[in-house]
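Propose amino acids for all 227 sites.
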């Protein structure tokens, strides 16, 4: 390397979705959203809410952090607007936390909708007291450094999912789903159909259904051995 990179790099110029579009996803089950995106969109299963009753919807604000460093996290706090979901990728580093209760309180003060990371958090009781939905791989009291480098606003890979600032993010007890902004409208259309179909199937199960129509057709066409 010829020279050291800046401690923090911030990418601006990306666009936040209209509030009406974001709100259209409020209350959507993450499982329904995945179904509406052909089985994709959910981050790694290990990224779960500290409070299992948490849910959120918002606009992604991305950050890429070096392992054991929080320059990107604080850069994202600075850039955040009300309703943003700060998403910090750490390459799944689990040696130290990337968020604590004080930073969570700062995010709450800025109106951040949620914090998502493929790393760890610390000060669980304090984070829960802030009311900020936090999704992470787990808890560790180990403290990070503020040395950089870190990047805010550029595309990241978090939990196996490509995320760009401006994408729509939804979280619930099952996990976190990222909806690419360019397909958001189409996903809403498919989501409406899935909700109707799901409600009808639940009605049939409550009435005694033991096998779905698709599964029944598969069984009817099965090769039977041993009769």
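Proposal:
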């Amino acid at each position: 390397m010829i020279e050291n990179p800046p401690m923090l790099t911030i990418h601006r110029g990306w666009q936040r979705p209209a509030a009406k579009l974001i709100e259209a996803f409020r209350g959507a089950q993450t499982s329904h959203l995945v179904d509406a995106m052909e089985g994709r969109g959910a981050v790694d299963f290990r990224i779960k809410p500290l409070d299992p009753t948490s849910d959120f919807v918002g606009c992604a604000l991305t950050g890429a952090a070096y392992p054991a460093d929080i320059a990107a996290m604080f850069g994202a706090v600075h850039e955040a607007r009300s309703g943003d979901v700060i998403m910090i990728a750490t390459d799944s580093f689990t040696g130290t936390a990337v968020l604590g209760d004080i930073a969570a309180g700062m995010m709450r003060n800025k109106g951040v909708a949620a914090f998502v990371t493929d790393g760890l958090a610390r000060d669980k009781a304090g984070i829960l007291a802030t009311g900020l939905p936090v999704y992470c791989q787990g808890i560790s009291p180990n403290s990070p450094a503020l040395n950089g480098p870190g990047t805010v606003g550029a595309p990241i890979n978090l939990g196996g999912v490509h995320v760009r600032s401006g994408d729509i993010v939804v979280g619930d007890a099952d996990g976190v789903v990222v909806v690419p902004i360019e397909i958001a409208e189409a996903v809403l259309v498919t989501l409406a159909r899935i909700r109707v179909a799901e409600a009808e199937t639940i009605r049939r199960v409550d009435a005694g259904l033991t096998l779905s129509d698709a599964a029944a057709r598969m069984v009817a066409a099965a090769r039977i051995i041993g009769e």
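The chain has one domain: 8-194. The longest strand covers residues 56-65.
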